[in-house]
Amino acid sequence: MYSNFKEQAIEYVKQAVQEDNAGNYSKAFPLYMNALEYFKTHLKYEKNPKIKEAITQKFTEHLRRAEEIRAVLDDGGTGPASNGGNASLRAGLNSAIITEKPNVQWSDVAGLESAKQALQEAVILPVKFPQFFTGKRRPWRAFLLYGPPGTGKSYLAKAVATEADSTFFSVSSSDLVSKWMGESEKLVSNLFQMARESAPSIIFIDEIDSLWHNDQKVLVLAATNTPYSLDQAIRWRFDKQIYIPLPDLKARQHMFKVHLGDTHHNLTEHDFEHLAYRTDGFSGSDISVCVNDVLFEPVWKTKDASYFVETSNGIWVPCGSTQRRAVQVTLQELEAQGLASKILPPPISRTDFEKVLARQRPTVSKADLEVHNRFTKEFGEEG
């Protein structure tokens, strides 16, 4: 039952901030006070010390704002309380954000095994084995969870925050847009500053598709996969409609090199040329996906290896059981021996690419290409 007190407090805060931002301080003040009462009641029943700490912090922030408004009202003032525009924005942002240290375990999330595995590896591997992520191989820092309502997206995000022992910032983009239209740049800056102050932290933005901005002083670069589905009035708002075609042979060969970067590999120029021929019809995104999968092939080999060999400089790399001086040992056992920093994945090979390409297909069909070519002839121009 006590969770209802927090929900009611948050609802009162939202109303209070709405009146606060509109300058209706006589209405905002009692709403803040009602919210504070519900927060106080919630604190009486809350057992989780981390959540109690987060609620106490929020209580203090809203109490400070309520006192500022009361001072203005007592002086008979009607203008904005003197806490500065940025402070007001942050106070309002605080009200729309649920900040907590969640306690949702992986086992609490039903199903979603592949999603859990991907997120778990993205959270844990970079922490335990930072040396795996060198060159172009970087830990993932942003995820889009998509699917029908009620499938557990926010719950899964909380499990990630629990696993990473991170502060969880949950905010609805539609709520933000309705309250702070025109303040998007300051809003994002404040949101990430708050997250940095509570680092390590995770920001979960719900309803991301509802964000939309329109500003005459801003250069807009828009993209769509379905140009024919755009309303004609919207298309007319763009001065140029430029077609971005699939990459040709040379472009694909270059893309493989760029995406691979200085990540440790043993591919030759002939190998890159072969990959370019092998991926006729692939988009730049397809090649990026391919390389991103390949980048982690050595990591998976290392994670699942049963045999390792120690090099002359004390580095342990995975190997086959028949390799000279091979030791039957797992990654976890080497870690337990205090050798985590001495383990490195093998270089990327052409075989790694062949393995990934065997299961990957171009995402753009011939029918899709025909639609884009026809649209280009009617409305666009070659890029």
From TrEMBL:
Source organism, top-level taxon: Eukaryota
GO BP annotations, alphabetical order: endosomal transport; vacuole organization
Predominant cellular place of this UniProt entry's protein: membrane
Locations listed in the record: Endosome membrane
GO molecular function: ATP binding; ATP hydrolysis activity
A GO cellular-component term linked to this record: endosome membrane
Domain MIT: 2-79
Membrane topology: Peripheral membrane protein
Keywords: ATP-binding, Endosome, Membrane, Nucleotide-binding
Domain AAA+ ATPase, residue spans: 139-248
Alphabetized CDD domains for the sequence: MIT_VPS4
Family indicated by similarity: Belongs to the AAA ATPase family.
Protein name: Uncharacterized protein
